[in-house]
Amino acid sequence: MPRPIQARIHTEALAHNLARARAAAPEARVWAIVKANAYGHGIERVFEGLRGADGFALLDLEEAQRVRALGWRGPILLLEGVFELRDLELCSRLDLWHAVHCDEQIDMLATHKTNVPHRVFLKMNSGMNRLGFTPERYRSAWTRLNALPQVDEISLMTHFSDADGARGVAEQMAVFTTVTQDLPGERSLSNSAATLRQSEALSDWVRPGIAIYGSAPDYPEHSSADWGLQPTMTLSAKIIGTQTLSVGDSVGYGSTFVTEQPMRIGVVACGYADGYPRICPSGTPVLVGGVRSRTVGRVSMDMITVDLSAVPEAGFGSEVTLWGNAANGAVLGIDEVARCAGTVGYELMCALAQRVPVVVAA
């Protein structure tokens, strides 16, 4: 029998969350962001749930090839553009749109031989200070691109640094609008947080990422339920052993948890080698048989231990939900678990280990 741990990908939840993003930006077209192997879910596993998108956006050519292999004939956008000249050949062959964020990428386009000009998204660094042309250099970059026979339509793009917080997007919006006010081309501005929170930032294309995977982009100010989002990944395992402890007994490596009263614990077939964060402290929430409980002691490579006080009927073979949907309909949001680990839901999704069996469910 296989080790009793499994991740489930929920197709209907993906479609629901995509629809939620579309409802927040009813006049815009929607990129479904499937970078990082669809945030750890698997591109092939999410495709059916997200095929209602207007396009797929990702980072590398191998992922773009996988999307095309699934039968997608619509737009695909390379969010970081190309990394070397020969990448442009594959862009031509696969009909990929791609970001342009530096002079080197314009130089590559200028030497590229193609019969079909490229659709590009010229990126502005409006304050994020990662990729993109500064506002002072943006128009000259646009002029260079516009003069190239290798370039067809130029769309305009930026990325917000604080759409999920109090600072918001006003400052970056003002910079972007001022610089691009008389330039032609479609605009793409909003990530998940801006799509849900900042209606003034909506444009021709929105780029929801984490939201379509059921995680709140501004947790803990809002939960996924506040935004009407549903979990798209459930990680669950089973109890493979139990222990009955007396007062003063310790649990796990380093004896970091010591009982203050008699208690019964369950040993769960999940650990940091499966992608569950080792840094999660005692008290991190879990669902045992759909009933809220907590971890006790340190997370080991292959096991965690959970408090069974609230579920005396639980024992060998009982299901434990680490995040996502329990069989009885209870939900444990991935953001809550991530916060206990001092991180974000993105990282937990992307960190799901290869050894965990994954199935696609409704």
How would you portray this structure in words?
- This protein is of the alpha/beta class and 362 residues long.
- It folds into two domains: 11-213, TIM Barrel (Alpha-Beta Barrel); 233-361, Lyase, Ornithine Decarboxylase, Chain A, domain 1.
- 26% of the residues lie in helices and 25% in strands.
- The model has no long low-confidence stretch (mean pLDDT 97).
Distance between the termini: 24 Å
Beta-strand content estimate: 25-35%
CATH class of the largest domain: Alpha Beta
Q: In one word, what is the shape?
A: elongated
CATH A-level architecture of the largest domain? Alpha-Beta Barrel
**Cα Rg:** 23 Å
Helix content: 25-40%
* Quaternary structure annotation: single chain
Number of domains: 2
Number of helices, where a helix is a run of at least 4 consecutive DSSP H or I residues = 11
Residue-averaged pLDDT: 97
Which strands sit side by side, in order, in the main sheet? 8-7-6-5-4-3-2-9
- Low-pLDDT segments: none
Number of strands: 19
CATH topology of the largest domain: TIM Barrel
Largest sheet: 8 strands, parallel
Compressed to H and E, one letter per element, the order equals EHEHHEHEHEHEHEHEHEEEEEEEEEEHHE
Question: What name goes with the CATH superfamily of the largest domain?
Answer: Alanine racemase
